[in-house]
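call fold(seq) -> C-alpha cells
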Amino acid sequence: MSPLPRTASAAAGFTLVDVLLVVAILSMFAAIALPTSKPLDAARLDVAAQETANALRWARSEAIRNGSVLDTSGTRIVGFDVSTTTNHVRVSDYSGYARGSNMAHPIDKKTYDLDLANDSATRGVTVTSATFINQAGAAAGSTAIFDADGNPYQYNIGGTPAAVSPLTSAVVVLAYNGATRTVTLESTGRVVVAGG
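ret:
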C-alpha cells in the first residue's frame, strides 16, 4: 500500500510543532535580553555620577597641589562647573577670576570636559539641576572654585573677587530614564554620590 499523496495546500503550512518551536526560541531570547536592559540603565547613570564626583575631587586636589590663591589677583585658581543646558561637566583654570581653558584630564591628558549626554558610557544622561548654595543661603551659579586647603567657594563666572563666598553645599542631580543620582559637594570638600 502506498502513502497518500500530499496536496499543495497541506505542504505550504506550518505544523503546530513548528510554531511552538519558534515561540520557545523567541521566548528564550526575550528572557535573556529584557532583564539586562534595566541594569545597563543604572550602570550608565552610575558612571555619569562617578565621573562627576571624580571631576569635583580632582579639581579640589589640583587646587591643594597647586596652592590655589583666592586673593584680589585670582592667581592659580582651579574650578569645577556644570551646565544643565549642555549637560557638560568641566574642570577649568579660573586664574584671574575668569573661566579660562579646560584643564587636562589626569589620565588621558585630553581636555577635562565631560559631555554626559553624548559620551559613549554616559549617553543620554542629563544634568537636571545644579544647586550651589553659599554661606548666605543663596543659590549662586553652578561653579565651585577651591582654595589651597581644598575648601569650596561659590563663584559666578565673570564676577569680581568680592563675588567669592564659601559654599555650604553644591548638589548636582543627574537623570536617565526616570532614575536619578545626586552628587553632593559638602562645605568640607567631601564629595558624596547618592541614589539608586
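The first strand starts at residue 78 and ends at 82.
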